[in-house]
Amino acid sequence: MSEKIIQQNPVLISTRGLTKRFGSKDVLKGIDCDIRVGEKVAVIGPSGSGKSTFLRCLNLLELPSGGVVTVDGAVLFQSDMQAKKDVLDAIKAQIKAVKSGEASPEVKAHQEEAAALKEELLHAHAELKDAATKAKLAAIKLAKKSGGVTEEDVQDAVAAREKATAVVAELKARLSAVNAKIKQKKAEAKKNVDAAELQRLNEALTQAKAEYATAKKAHNAAMRKTNAVIDEHRRNMGMVFQHFNLFNNLTVTENITLAPVSLGIKDLAAKRKELLKRKLFKHEDVTEQLAALPDKLEIIENAKTNAKRLLARVGLLDKADVFPSTLSGGQKQRIAIVRSLAMNPRVMLFDEPTSALDPEMVGEVLEVIKELADEGMTMVIVTHEMNFAKEVATRVLFVDDGLIKEDAPPADLFGNPQNDRLKEFLSKIL
Ligand code: ADP
Ligand code: MG
User: For an engineered disulfide with 186, which of 101, 158, 198, 345 has Cβ 3.0 to 4.6 Å away?
Assistant: First the structure.
C-alpha cells in the first residue's frame, strides 16, 4: 500500500500524552502517536528509552500512568490522575520550602554554592587519596632501594600529599562556612515568611486536592470499565516478544490452539447463558439459536484446522505435533507468531522479535513478518534490524528518553535525520 493511501486510512490506535512512571522514574513522558490501519511502524531507539513500555501500554499489558489511549476512536484508557497528583505534590513541596525558609532566594543561592563545593571536595578527596598512595609507595621503594627512587622523589611525593591535604582542609572550611550561612539565612527567612504568599499557596493546595480527588474518582471508574473491555482489546492485538514464551509441556498445536479454544469456550458459555436468560425471563423461543451454537468439539476442531493453515503458511506444518524443545530459536519464534495470528488480531505488536536469535535464524523470522506486512497486517515493531525497518516500515519512530523524538518515513529518518540524539544513535549502529 502506498504511503498516501495509508495516511487516509482510519486511525486504529492512538495515544495522547501517554505517560508511565515506575516508582519515581518517568519512563514514558507523554507520547502522542496515531497508528493507522495498514501502517507498519518500526520503533527504534537506545536501550532503556521506553520502547517496550510503550508497546506494553498500547495493549494495556502495562497500565499507563496518564494520558489517553483510544482504539477505533473509542477511549480505552484515560487518566489525568497522575498529572493532578504531580501538581498537588509540587504545591506541598513549595509550602514546605516556604515555611522552612528553603524557598528564600538567598538560601537557594547558598545551597547551590554548597553543592558545587561538595562536588569539588569529592574530587579533592580522590586526589588526596591518590597522592597519599604515591607518597607511601615512594617511601617503600626508597627503603627497599628498588625502582630507582631517590630521597628527593619521596620529599616531592610527600609535598604533593601535604598540598592535597591543604586543599581538602580549605574546601571543608569553605563548605562549613557556607552551611552556617544557609542555617542563618533559613532562620531569617523562617521568621519573615511572606503571609500573602503562604495564603496563596494554601488556596492552591485546596484546589489541587479537590482536583486530584475528582481525577482519582474518574480514574477508578475508568479502570473498572477498562477491565471489562481490556480482554476484547487484547484479542485484537497480537504480541510477540523477544523470548518466545511457548509452553514447553504442550505440543506446537496445543500452544497455538490454547487461547482460541479457551476463549471460544468462554464465549460459547456466555452466549448460551444469554440465550437461556431470554428463554427464562422473556419467554422467547431460542431453540434454533441454541442449536446453532457450536459445540466444544467443533471449537477445538476449528482451532486445529486454523493452526494447520497458519503453520503451513510459515513452513512449519511438519512440526504440528512436536514439543517446542525440539525446535530451533527461529522455528520457535515463527510458532510464537502463528500463535498470535491464531487469535485473528487486527494489529501485531513485535518487541525485538529477532534479538534473542542466532544470526542465521534472523532471516527466516523477518521473512515471515515481512510476508504479514505485505498482506496488509497493521504492525508495530521494535527492532534493531535497521535494514528491515528501511525495507518494510512505512514509518519509523525514534524513541529516546521516554519521548518520540522523530517520526518520519524510513527514507527521511535514515537519510536525513533531524534530531541530534537520533544522529548520534544512527552513527553508532549503522
Ligand atoms: P527499552 O525497551 O527501550 O529498552 P523499557 O521500556 O524496557 O526500555 O524500559 C525503560 C525503563 O523503564 C528502563 O529504565 C527500565 O529499567 C524501566 N522499567 C521497565 N519496566 C519496569 C518495571 N516493571 N518496573 C520498574 N522499572 C521498569
Ligand atoms: Mg525493550
Answer: 101
What is the 403 CA–ligand 1 centroid distance (Å)? 13
Dist. CA 22 → ligand 1 center (Å): 8
How far does residue 27's CA lie from ligand 1's centre (Å)? 7
* Alpha helical stretches, state H, 9-80: 51-58
Indicate whether this model's pTM tops 0.70.
yes
* Residue having the nearest C-alpha atom to atom 16 of ligand 1: 48
Question: Which residue's alpha carbon is nearest to atom 24 within ligand 1?
Answer: 22
Percent of the chain scored above 90 by pLDDT?
73
Three-class secondary structure of residue 45 per DSSP: coil
Neighbour count for residue 325 (Cβ, 10 Å): 9
Element (H, E) at 154: helix 151-191
Record the cell numbers describing residue 259, joined without a space.
487461547
Local structure of 356: helix, strand or coil:
coil
Cβ(58)–Cβ(13) below 8 Å: yes
pLDDT reading at 26 higher than 90? yes
Closest ligand 1 atom to residue 55 Cα is 6
Inter-residue contact 394 to 40 (CB < 8 Å): yes
Residue with cell string 523524538: 405
Q: How far apart are CA 419 and CA 298, in angstroms?
A: 55
- Ligand 1 centroid to residue 169 C-alpha, Å: 43
Q: Which ligand is nearest to the CA of 45?
A: 1
